[in-house]
Amino acid sequence: MRIAVIIGVGVVLVAPCFAQQAAEQPADEQARAALSKTGFSLEVAGRWIGKSDLDASPGEVGVARVSTRLGVRHQLSDKVGLTFAAELEHSVYDFDNATGLIAGTSNPFDDATIATLSLGAQVRVSEQDAWFVTGFVRSAGESGADFNDTITGGGIVGFQRTFSKDLTLGIGVLASSELEGDVYIIPVPMVRWQIAERWSLATGQGADVRLAFAPSERWAFGLEAAWDRREFRLDDRGPLPSGVVDERHIPVGLFARFTPNANFSLDAHLGTQLGSEIEIENRNGNQVGQDDIDPALYAGLDLSIRF
User: Fold this and answer.
1) pLDDT tens-digit profile of 137-192?
2) How many CA atoms does the CB half-sphere of 244 hold within 13 Å?
3) Domain count, the chain
4) Segment 211-254, tens digit of pLDDT
């Protein structure tokens, strides 16, 4: 069993939608959402990560990534709500002379596709307090990987309290199986703090911590940081058949958000990937390659539509 303690950040592509919505929505918005009964959201995101050198072995690597997420929320009553989400992410890796990760090849793997289905519920037990739970199942693999070997699953349970219209805090515990049978357990803090009229601090999907300045209702600018982890199964006919890749990053950067109305937003991102690491295991769980990755520039665009 692996246990990780992450202070101040959540988990990209793992933290379920209800935990994030609960932390981001003020209490009055949640009350209005209860009246709307059913809503939908569509999110499309793209990321480019520039090529960067591997630290202890030859070669370099860059990544191009695109993802989409469809969400459905339904309010059963003024106290109970449900969410469903389907997410799909595809990454293309561009290795150059990376001969030290998997013996006999300079191109350890080509791509990875991660598909996630999640179902969650939130129960408001008082004006200030709510419990939430979400379960998810995921397939993560390179093209050509055996589908049955790409499946993992898990869930999150947590609690949040609204102290005022400006402050909501919560904590969740996420547990997820891993491709080689371990269990990963992570505490997921949730924050929505309106520090001042134009300043806010929040956790949420994509950028796990955001400090934002909003000069107007349409525009917001700020700092973002996240802890980003992906694990996926390799092609069963590739250089390391049915192996497992585990990659971690800490993206830190700037963002700008344009929100012309309540149903549409566009985010731009620019920053640096720090603390990047890649680990490769064979099908038996034995490590065959590991290296740090030097800091790399990243840029991205996110489109979000709610209706």
Assistant:
1) 999 999 999 999 999 999 999 999 999 999 999 999 999 999 987 898 988 889 99
2) 21
3) 1
4) 999 999 999 999 999 989 999 999 999 999 999 999 999 999 99
First to last CA, the chain: 41
- The two tokens of residue 50 are 């520039």
Which of the residue ranges 49-63, 100-114, 199-213 would you say has the lowest mean pLDDT? Answer: 199-213
CATH number, position 160:
2.40.160
Contact of 255 with 269, CB cutoff 8 Å: yes
Report the distance separating Cα 99 and Cα 59, nearest Å.
Answer: 7
Residue 48 sits at φ, ψ, to 5 deg, of -120, 125
What span, in angstroms and rounded, lies between the C-alpha atoms of 150 and 77? 37
Burial 136-175 (b: 16+ CB within 10 A, else e): bebbbbbebbeeeebebebbbebbbebeeeeebebebebe
H or E element at residue 277: strand 264-281
pTM: 0.86
The pLDDT of residue 182 is 84
Burial of 99: CB neighbours in 10 Å, binned 0-12, 13-18, 19+: middle
Name which of 22, 21, 24 is nearest 220 in CA terms. 24
- Exposed/middle/buried for residue 96 (C-beta within 10 Å: 0-12, 13-18, 19+): middle
CA count, 13 A, side-chain hemisphere, 63: 24
Q: How far apart are CA 53 and CA 55, in angstroms?
A: 6
- Domain containing residue 242: 2-306
